[in-house]
């Protein structure tokens, strides 16, 4: 064997050793690092280090599966896609964990997100957290008018307390559109489901001087917060009394 070939073999062995050491070092970092605590596998670890490029709000409850890490569209690119679709109806045919769908929702009239994997759909729903939840549940048909005091348990498909608590898991900023004869005491009780209690504002809604319903605002979207917004509630109670008379 020539000296030249011997040197080549030694060089290859050194290169392999360096590569193995590098891999062991990376695995060690993975095992001891924050990525390991989040259950991130070595296969997608490099994408985890880019997590804020994928979702700028990653620390606010974003969830991913392994495939999602390497298939989600980086947020900056998804924003550019959405800007081309302003005020349109978009069908996201391969929505995955929601990278594009979330940005489309900020710019478009309506977004239909589709994925064959139910787990991906669940992850996308988790990641697409909004700033405000609007609740306008069915009131049970025109017969609601015949009820003197409409209670929250009459709402469909679940009672008002349950729906409100589900909304709270997403954001404290909630809007509810409710019947004109809803029980104002129960409406106030909803604000006490949070700790500390949420600011509350009740807005009577009129069409042609007829009271049609009430909109209740909770949290940071209350127009002019004041202690418990009792003034608004008292005004609404007067409207209810007039209605019943």
Automatic annotation (TrEMBL):
Source lineage: Eukaryota, Viridiplantae, Streptophyta, Embryophyta, Tracheophyta
This protein's name: Trimethylguanosine synthase
Source organism (scientific name): Senna tora
Gene Ontology molecular function: any one: RNA cap trimethylguanosine synthase activity
InterPro entries the UniProt entry points to: RNA_cap_Gua-N2-MeTrfase, SAM-dependent_MTases_sf
Catalysed reactions listed for this entry: a 5'-end (N(7)-methyl 5'-triphosphoguanosine)-ribonucleoside in snRNA + S-adenosyl-L-methionine = a 5'-end (N(2),N(7)-dimethyl 5'-triphosphoguanosine)-ribonucleoside in snRNA + S-adenosyl-L-homocysteine + H(+); a 5'-end (N(7)-methyl 5'-triphosphoguanosine)-ribonucleoside in snoRNA + S-adenosyl-L-methionine = a 5'-end (N(2),N(7)-dimethyl 5'-triphosphoguanosine)-ribonucleoside in snoRNA + S-adenosyl-L-homocysteine + H(+); a 5'-end (N(2),N(7)-dimethyl 5'-triphosphoguanosine)-ribonucleoside in snoRNA + S-adenosyl-L-methionine = a 5'-end (N(2),N(2),N(7)-trimethyl 5'-triphosphoguanosine)-ribonucleoside in snoRNA + S-adenosyl-L-homocysteine + H(+); a 5'-end (N(2),N(7)-dimethyl 5'-triphosphoguanosine)-ribonucleoside in snRNA + S-adenosyl-L-methionine = a 5'-end (N(2),N(2),N(7)-trimethyl 5'-triphosphoguanosine)-ribonucleoside in snRNA + S-adenosyl-L-homocysteine + H(+)
SUPFAM superfamilies: S-adenosyl-L-methionine-dependent methyltransferases
One cellular-component annotation, GO: nucleus
Family to which this protein belongs: Belongs to the methyltransferase superfamily. Trimethylguanosine synthase family.
